[in-house]
Amino acid sequence: MTRIIHDVDRALVSAEIAYVGDRNEIARLANGVFSTGVGFKPNRLGALGDYARGTLAFEFHPRVNGEGLTPGIAARIAYTIAAGDLNWQRIEAKLSARRYWHGLILAAHLDAGAVVGTSSSPNTL
Fold first, then answer.
1. Which of 93, 96, 91, 92 is closest to 62 using CA atoms?
2. What's the CA angle centered on 23, arms 17 and 26, to 5 degrees?
3. pLDDT tens, 24-41?
4. What is the C-alpha to C-alpha distance for residues 26 and 90, in angstroms, rounded to an integer?
5. How many CB atoms lie within 10 A of CB 123?
6. Integer Cα distance of 116 and 87 in angstroms
7. For the chain, what are the domain ranges?
8. In 10 A of CB 66, how many CB atoms?
9. Tens of pLDDT along 54-87?
10. Is the distance from CB of 84 to CB of 52 less than 8 angstroms?
11. Distance of alpha carbon 28 from alpha carbon 43, whole angstroms
12. What is the pTM of this model?
């Protein structure tokens, strides 16, 4: 569910609720189409389990990010909590800035995050 604040260029608040099952992924390909004999690395094993997950996110100026070319300053913060076979919490923050200067696009991004929990897994990173 997403709520637009004022207009889509201003801010968004999003919420997500899900029931999730984490399983290990079996590699189905040994190498790429244009491989030079070097195979893919094996998939990293994750923690197995079923859990409920909820996420709440706030985005300020969502069009000023890595995908768009809109100038300005943007921010995003998201908090996720999971409970069940796997219990963890994750917080992520992103700050972006973009400016046009004499035909050049100057951009900067700062990302930060942390995961804590009694049974967090590599899946959450």
1. 96
2. 135
3. 888 788 777 887 778 888
4. 26
5. 19
6. 9
7. 2-21+47-120
8. 11
9. 999 999 988 887 667 788 999 999 999 999 988 8
10. yes
11. 10
12. 0.79
